[in-house]
Structure formats: structure tokens, C-alpha cells
Amino acid sequence: MHQGRGEFAFIDWLRSKTPAHSRVALGPGDDAAVLQFPGPAECLITSDMLMEGTCFRLEEAGPRLVGRKAMSVNLSDIAAMAGRPLAAVVSVALPRAGGRALAEELYLGLREVADQFDTAIAGGDTNTWDGPLVIAVTILGEATPRGPVLRSGARVGDRLLVTGPLGGSILGKHLEFTPRVREATELHAVADVHAMIDISDGLAADVGHMCAESRCGARIWAQAIPISQDAHRIHDGRSPLEHALGDGEDFELVAAVSPADAERLVREQPITGIQLACIGECVEEGLWLEKNGHVGKLEPLGYAHPMD
Amino acid sequence: MHQGRGEFAFIDWLRSKTPAHSRVALGPGDDAAVLQFPGPAECLITSDMLMEGTCFRLEEAGPRLVGRKAMSVNLSDIAAMAGRPLAAVVSVALPRAGGRALAEELYLGLREVADQFDTAIAGGDTNTWDGPLVIAVTILGEATPRGPVLRSGARVGDRLLVTGPLGGSILGKHLEFTPRVREATELHAVADVHAMIDISDGLAADVGHMCAESRCGARIWAQAIPISQDAHRIHDGRSPLEHALGDGEDFELVAAVSPADAERLVREQPITGIQLACIGECVEEGLWLEKNGHVGKLEPLGYAHPMD
After folding, report:
1. Which residue of A118, A135, A206, B65 is most buried, as measured by CB atoms within 10 A?
2. All domains of chain A, ordered by start, with CATH?
3. Alpha helices in A22-62 (DSSP H)
């Protein structure tokens, strides 16, 4: 019924590229998709929107990597709940010129990451307009039998673990990173994770978010923070430590666990592929940075969308 | 922890405006929301994105009505499956200047419609950028015990019903309409609806989509189409009938039912508030318009996003 061009031809192409999935009773092409859910479990849902020029530069990254990032940032939110991703829907606003080729590459990028994490792409919405590329992904997930890990469960005395080196993500990691889905569920299986968050706004800011929800404070030990190679490669007047504390989009996890669990996890390193580091502890109130024996106030550096 | 401005201050405001809901175990403010699902039923999911300048003119409509529309178009997709909406997530890209006031009005518009249809707003993503307003809503729903109504179930001989008058939606209905959620479930309760679609692209185009999925054709009876007052009010060289056939965003439903059910439903009019009209029948192939005893080819007029 459809001509070779336009929205519906693309949807035909997309359907031809979308493999059957056990959790998808009805995929793209109807008014809604139909998912088959494993059971009456708690359902996680998260949504993230990426806008060209703000979250990526299309000409630098290319559409394949933008698709990968759009899926990965959402998977990172599911990881932060220690959840298992199930299915995604994707809405896009494509620039009119070259929209079809862009849409195909975007979709292939989305699929690569979705396939890697056994996440079905069940449907979405394809639009064109005169503006730049906007892509919004929503992911459904399920909690592990232990329940979702919230931001609000950290307790005074808890230790803070991070799943990898921080800082300098602007040099590339913000586009191409591994959402810590596997690591989070493995961690939650071997320890009782009290609270967790992914580092999207910056370590200090996101520890601040977690503490605000948990009604506690935190003291970060500067010397214990694993600092990435990339944080050392940026010469903009800020130190590698400042980059590790303030740079957004590292997409590592910060987890609050008991002191005994922290000690054991750092010693045993039970999660393959990553090195857990203990970078601080939860205190009664305030955000503090301990550095060379001196404790100072930690500004919750990091990204917030300005709005007035 | 948050200052009075910026993204996080808005999220605080939003949380204060979001009432508790039995289906939402954890609402906005964490990495993902947590939903409590009624059971291991089939889960409907649909997503729609609206972009300023393409889907609405912000200065004409105002943010409240844009919020209402963004929620309503998604509810209309759930209606087209004869589903019951459960929960929504909302992602927005806001223009930087005046973004906070805009975000509040948008959210209040979203809430008005969500509340009317007992749909929880569970979370989302708030961004600002230099571009125009973009809003993407994803809704989860559940199918009735009879299962979801797909586009693909129409059979040759089925009659096509519509739920209201068509055409001229650009004069206002495209912004302010009632998604046919209640009407669809009531219809599916009193008759076996074989296939259904909501009219977003235009009657001819959407009947074409339904027929393509059902591998059949349709003959539309011109004289039987209920034509809206607004279709008569547009004087652009196209007839009211052409507007009824081609105009998008009417958001009425087209349902395929057996001839006996169609006859009974039109006679008994069991759905309060709307007048069901039988406007045609499913045939072996092709799209046809019967008018004054003459049958001609029906072009699948209507909207498709151009893409090259």
C-alpha cells in the first residue's frame, strides 16, 4: 500500500528489521504495541530525551552512535534500579532532509544496544520536522526478586562504591559506554544494595541527589576516587579530580552498601569486568570532600538544565 | 538541596503536584518509576511525540492545551486497542527562556486529561535547549479480558463504524478532543470488534492502514459519512466530504464489526454521548468510494511525514 518514500515506507522497513521477540505479542505498526509480561511483578519505567546540539553533535557522532547513546542512557537508569530491561519504545523528530537514511542508522544503533541487553524495541513514533534531531526512548523493566533499588535507601555509615573511573567523558565516553545493567544485578545479588544512582549529572551532584532522597549527607574521600585517563587529558584549568567530581555522563553507578559489604566487595571484586572502588561514606548531613586530611564543603557540581 | 530555579526545582514542584496513585509504587524523582501492575495481563504501550510548529503553534494554543493534546493523542491510541490506560511518562525539551512557566502549564494540561482517564503520570525527563518545544508521552495500558483490538482483524463483509463527525479538525478539534477510551471499551463490551484504528492521518488513510493490516479492501459510502460542522466552515476549494475523508487528527475511531452487529449498534445506539454511523464495508481489495451510485477509486488522502 505504501510508496517507497515517507513515513510509512520507513515503518515497513523498520518492521522488516525487527525480529520476533518472546515478550512482544504485537510489534511496530499498530496503534499500540502489545507486550507479554512475565508476571504481576513491579514494573520499572524510565524515559530520556536527547536533543541534537545539546546532548550530542550529529555531525561528530553520526546517527549510529546517537542511537546507541539514546538506548544506553535509558538502560543506565534501569541499571540504577538494579532492574532487568524488557522492552523499549522510541519516538523521533527527524530533520526532513536526509531523514530516511538518518532514521535507518539511528534504528540500527538502537538495535545494537537493545540486542546486547535482550531488550525488545516494541514500537514508537516517527516524525519529521524543520528542527534538529530529537529522540526519546522509554524503557520498561522488571525489578529483581529483591525489589528495585531506590535512591532513598542509603543510611548513615553506609559506604559508597563506584563501578569505574570517572571524569572526562566529553572526550568520548558520553557517547559510547556500557550501561551497568549486568554489573548492577550481579552486585545486588551478592550484596544488599541500600541505594543506587547512575552518574549522569556528575559524581558530586548525583551523590547529592541520592543523599537528598535518603535524608543524609556524604563524605567523599578524594584520594579514593578512581580518575579516568580522559580526566587527565583535558587541560582546561580544572584538575583531574575536579573533572571526576563534576563531569556528567560517566554512567557509572554509585551504590550505598553496609561497611562490611563494602570491605568484602572491594577485597573480593566479585563483578567481572569492573573494579569496585569505595569512595566515601554516608554521614548525618552535608556534602563533604576529604582531601589530604582536610575536610571541606563539596559543592554539588554537575549538570542541571537551566530553566527560568 | 535544590535552589529555587532550574531543572531540579521544577522536579520538586512537579512532585508536590503529583498525587499518590494506587498503581505507582514510586513516582517522579528516582532513576525510574515503579509501577504496580494489576496482573500478568497483556500490556499495551504507545508513544507519540509532538513538535512545536508542526503539531501545534504554541502561541496560538498555549501550553495548557498542548499538554492536553500530548496526553490525549496517546490515550486515543490506547482507545484504538480498546484498552484501559494505566500510567504515562513524559519527556520534554523546553525552550530555555520561560521554560519553567511553560513546563508548569504543560504539566497541568497533561494532568487534567490524565486525571480524567485515571492515568498516573509516573515520571519522565525534563530538558531545556535552544530549540522549540518538543514533548513525547508514552502510555502503558492493559487490554480488556477480550484482548486488544488490532488493526489486522477486519474481514471481508465487515461493516465500518465511526464514532463521530469528521473533517475540519484544524479549526480546533485537533487540539481539544475527547479520546474515545470509554466509548471503545463500551463498544468492545457490547459487540465483537474485529479491528479498530483512530483517525489521526485522515479517514481514507487510516481505513487504508487498517485494510493493509487486515489484507482486505474497503468501500466507503460517501453519503453515510457524518461530516462535522467545521468541515463545512472551511472554504479552501475542497468540499466538506473531501475534508471528512482527508483531514487528519479527528481522533474518532473506525471499527470493523459484523453486518449484524453493525445493524444492531446503529439501531440501538448503546454508547452514550456518541452517535455511531455505518460508513462502509470491507471488500476483497482496493479502496473505493461509492457516491450517488457511482463507485470510484478512493485515494488514501491524509497525512504522512515526508522523509527522504
Report:
1. A135
2. 6-142 (3.30.1330.10), 151-297 (3.90.650.10)
3. 58-61
